[in-house]
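Good morning,

Attaching, inline, the backbone tokens for the sequence recovery test we're adding to the shared suite. The designed sequence is right after.
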């Protein structure tokens, strides 16, 4: 038989299927004819973690749970070849990916000695205790592990939302972490997600170079991460806009503990779109604008609506910038590609009648790696634009 007619082994056929069907809000679980140590789950196939050739199919399969089913015997092993389950390898894969273990990140752990985790899928939920035990064992000096699985996406997996202590000591109401030498107060029990957006660490570090003597607008400011860096870079003033009063109060304290009294700070509670439209009506202008909005598209079905929202807020930013000003703009929607996001920002500049040039491309940090088989894992994308 010619080699190009030779049937592909199960792993290669699985990968072909992944490439054809993988989208941002779905993944793969593969049916197996062999028993595995999971309770029976109605409506889903139970995943096997390695194919018959011991290839790392598990690290693809266990990160997501499909809302569709593969046909019976989709990728079976040859008769007589057992499936295997290697706990240590699976855990390393999950922890390295930092996707279903969002928040268990080295900078947070080293700074405060607590682990904060979210378990978002049924596959990871089944191994929650084992994962926590492994992480605690691998990291010296951990005082406690806290769960923040209070997110709607768990309901799609048939899981209830949950928060609480997983291991060790209860974390205090606020903990202090250190990022790039700067202290920040973090509320790991009530803050967004796991309390602090560590994926922006490297992008925040680029902001001070543009802020000397500048009037800075930090939209969707949360606890003031970008504002602290702007003030440290010599900003004349920082205006923080966010819907959350508790987040703004924490932002105020974060500016204080970083010794940013030299920058005039204004804290505005309100809808960012409405506040920015008000600034436009007042003909208020800024030298630097940072747009770090929440996820506007949670799935491919929401991309069109999200694109309109991204365009609207970037249009406002272009209209508020002085000539020669700088825009730091981001999207954390995995369903919105970097190419589409750049086109959205271009459309906003065009409608605003402004010329702009990209002087930097931004992304998540190196501790948020992207699997080649899952390009949507490059969820955070950003642009630094000089605007005229």
């Amino acid at each position: 038989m010619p080699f190009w007619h030779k049937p592909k082994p199960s792993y290669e056929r699985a990968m072909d299927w992944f490439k054809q069907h993988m989208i941002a809000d779905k993944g793969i679980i593969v049916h197996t004819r062999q028993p595995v140590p999971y309770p029976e789950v109605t409506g889903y196939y139970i995943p096997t973690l390695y194919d018959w050739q011991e290839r790392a199919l598990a690290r693809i399969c266990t990160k997501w749970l499909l809302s569709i089913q593969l046909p019976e015997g989709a990728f079976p092993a040859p008769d007589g070849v057992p499936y295997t389950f290697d706990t240590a390898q699976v855990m390393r894969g999950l922890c390295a990916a930092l996707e279903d273990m969002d928040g268990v990140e080295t900078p947070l752990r080293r700074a405060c000695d607590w682990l904060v985790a979210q378990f978002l899928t049924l596959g990871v939920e089944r191994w929650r205790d084992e994962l926590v035990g492994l992480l605690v064992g691998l990291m010296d000096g951990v005082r406690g592990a806290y769960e923040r699985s209070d997110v709607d996406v768990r309901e799609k997996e048939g899981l209830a939302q949950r928060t609480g202590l997983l291991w060790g000591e209860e974390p205090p109401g606020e903990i202090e972490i250190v990022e790039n030498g700067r202290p920040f107060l973090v509320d790991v029990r009530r803050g967004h997600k796991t309390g602090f957006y560590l994926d922006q660490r490297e992008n925040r570090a680029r902001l001070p170079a543009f802020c000397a003597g500048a009037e800075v607008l930090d939209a969707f400011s949360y606890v003031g991460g970008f504002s602290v860096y702007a003030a440290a870079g010599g900003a004349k003033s920082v205006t923080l806009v966010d819907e959350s009063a508790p987040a703004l109060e924490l932002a105020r304290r974060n500016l204080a503990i970083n010794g940013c009294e030299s920058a005039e700070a204004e804290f505005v509670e309100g809808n960012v779109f409405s506040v920015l439209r008000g600034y436009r009506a007042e003909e208020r202008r800024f030298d630097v604008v940072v747009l770090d909005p929440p996820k506007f598209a949670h799935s491919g079905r929401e991309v069109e609506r999200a694109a309109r929202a991204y365009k609207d807020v970037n249009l406002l930013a272009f209209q508020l910038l002085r000539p020669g000003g700088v825009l730091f703009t981001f999207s954390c929607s995995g369903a919105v590609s970097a190419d589409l996001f750049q086109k959205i920002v271009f459309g906003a500049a065009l409608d605003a009648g402004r010329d702009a040039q990209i002087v930097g491309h931004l992304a998540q940090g190196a501790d948020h790696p992207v699997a080649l088989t899952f390009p949507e894992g490059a969820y955070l994308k950003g642009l630094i634009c000089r605007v005229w």
